Amino acid sequence: MYRRCLRRLAVLISAAFLSATLAAQPVEVTIGYIQWIPDQGPVLSNVIPEPEDAGLRGAELAIADNNTTGKFLDQKYLFESETTDSEQAALDAFEAMQKKGIELFVIRAPANTLETMIDRAGATTLIFNAGAKDGHLRTTSCYPNLLHTMPSYAMLTDALGQWLNQRRWNEVFLITGPTEADQAWAGAFRRSARRFGLDIVEDKAWTFDADLRRTASKELPLFTQGDDYDAVVVADVRGDFGEYVPFNTWLPRPVVGTQGMSPVAWHRVVESWGAAQLQSRFRKLAGRDMNSEDYAAWTAVRSIGTAVTRTGKANAAAIRAFLFSDKFQLAAFKGRKLTYRDWNAQLRQPIPLIHPRGLVARAPFEGFLHPNTQMDTLGFDKPESECRINE
User: Domains in the chain, please, with CATH?
Assistant: First the structure.
């Protein structure tokens, strides 16, 4: 009798699922991916170069994930990508995809290129920023059709600032490289230092163009002489000199920032909350480890997939409305459900603090309070931004 009831229940569940599947309307979703990264020039260190397909592979994995879910709901995800070697080629690819009727885009490109694309976008186009970390895109340059899955510089440096404050390493020595990215990273850290009560006792610019592979042990101890400090903070996004700062400082101090212990969106050492399974699937697809650019593209495509699954609609307007609703939460292997800030469309997410072979911690940390959500202690909070894209 008991077994008979179980069989009947199984049949009813199967019938209900089949009925729901048959009732679902077929949906086809096309997502465009465009990538253009300017040539960074020669790097004066032995830093491992970033994979040329960083970002693209994350989007491809997310398309596969979306189709795994979509096949049960008669939803199909198509993917068109262009990795270009010039800004003009990226803009041409964007316009060509729009002419094909594509409304959903994931873009990995510099902020100025991204803004040009937005100016050329159609009224129904929805763009996900999976590359630019610039603060002005989240504070003053406010675009209703632009969402950010890449953490801003401010989110990354706030994670580091919270950690330094928590450890009571309040006096730091800041070294800033010459590139625009270095300046942007350092500027964000100075803001974080004020926010979390850190004292930058030395703030020095790295102006040398020497190859440190032979001279680091002589030059860096002299460069880092100064008043006592608890940690050295390095802003060297490209990796010209920062790789040689650890163990070469005048005082025996930890190195954090773009080198040493670093705040990132993603890294191969993140394995908790099911992340090991994501890492494994990515390695199988790409033949390498997943990085922050891959993760930003993956979360963008998965955001679209989550919205389509829940709404059954593939148009950009319906997807955007759902992403900003109370019903949206993205399960993204970081221990918390991720959501978008309704004033500037930044994806809220924890920030891992890592060194090349291990996870140190994950921000935000206990003790840093917020009236709405602790996740908004990272990056630009609503009062700090002029953006009000949903008002």
Answer: 24-151+267-349 (3.40.50.2300), 154-263 (3.40.50.2300)
